[in-house]
Amino acid sequence: MVYSTVVLFSAGWLWQCTVNDKPLPIFGERVFDGVDTIYHTVAPFALLDQDSTLISNADVKGKIYVADFFFTSCRTICPKMKVQMKRVYDAVGEMDDVVILSHTIDPDYDDVDRLKKFADRIGIKSVKWHFLTGNKDSIFNLAQTSYYATAMEDAAEPDGYIHSGAFLLVDRQGRLRGKYDGTLPEETDRLIGDIKKLGLLEE
Amino acid sequence: MKIILSVKFIALILFFAACSSGDPKHAQYLVQGERLYGQHCSNCHQADGKGFGSLYPPLAGSDFLAGRKSEVICLIRNGIDSALVVNGIVYDQPMPGNEKLTDLEIAEIVTYVYGKWGGDKLITEIAEVSRATRACNLN
Fold this sequence. Notes:
The complex is a heterodimer.
Chain A: H1 2-18, E1 30-32, E2 37-39, E3 46-48, E4 54-56, H2 57-60, E5 64-70, H3 78-91, E6 98-104, H4 112-122, E7 129-132, H5 136-146, E8 151-153, E9 161-163, E10 166-170, E11 176-181, H6 185-201
Parallel strand pairs in A: 5-6, 6-7
Antiparallel strand pairs in A: 1-2, 3-4, 5-10, 8-9, 10-11
Chain B: H1 2-19, H2 24-40, H3 42-45, H4 69-78, E1 84-86, E2 89-91, H5 103-117, H6 126-136
Antiparallel strand pairs in B: 1-2
Helix pairs in contact in B: 1-2, 2-5, 4-6, 5-6
């Protein structure tokens, strides 16, 4: 009797764990205007991708996307991040409304041609995974204020930049819904789970 | 945790010692080499040595290892800015040099890499690294 109660109890507990439909948090400041709550969203941006296509907020409107910050000549954490982001790319291949935006923080060196070559060498399609370049200050500003990700020049660093290895999950309304360490496979697994959850549970 | 780690470490040493006809120095080179590989090489070439796309070349199954140890030693020390061909694919992403690695550390990495992926079960001695690195600057 006691035994079966324990089994039932654990089964219920396990069930709760596997079917976790708790909504993802919404990051950043929020304001209540008397009628609605207004959340922090990604600020307007317009950057060129590896095909010289101008990508702006309009292109990701109504889509779920993952953002990160890197540069092609980076030898420290970026290669790890790109290996993990390729796993995300492979995992969301069938989800048409999910895209990836990788922003270079060294746009003077990482021009469109260099990003094109880099993307081709990873072996990805540009409609799904955009490598973005543009004005350096705009990109730094976007990183810091829209995505709460660190990106700045620092002569003390081996490659001349300090930047976070974060992957940022953005929902269909441009709101930040998750932050993950993009150098770690287990954190990337969590991101992939959260993308699928957003895709299934929220319009 | 510490105990488990040290047991693993001893097991590794024993394993490598068994493989390398009981030479403790060779076993130590393999263990240190694996650790240094993890720190300095695996970000790009991956822990399993398979590389990444056609961005970073593989070491596992690579035709660049056999008979080219001196070149590999120079690559580790000085890096490369020009293209190189591995298994018929051109790779041209620059590889940074590792000027801070000592000849001993490079010997350990090369012993590990060649032991694991180069089909070479012999130790790479410090003297061999020193000879090779002196020669790379002459070419």
